Amino acid sequence: MGLPLPPSAGKQRIALQLRCADIASVAPLPSLLDVTPVTPQGWRSSVRQLAELAQLNRVRCGVFGSLAWQRLTGLGYLGPDSDLDVVWSLPHRTRMTAFLIRVAEIESHAPMRIDGELTREDGAGVNWRELHAGASELALKSWTGVRPCSVAAFVGS
Question: From the candidates 22, 85, 115, 122, which is the catalytic residue?
Answer without folding.
Answer: 85
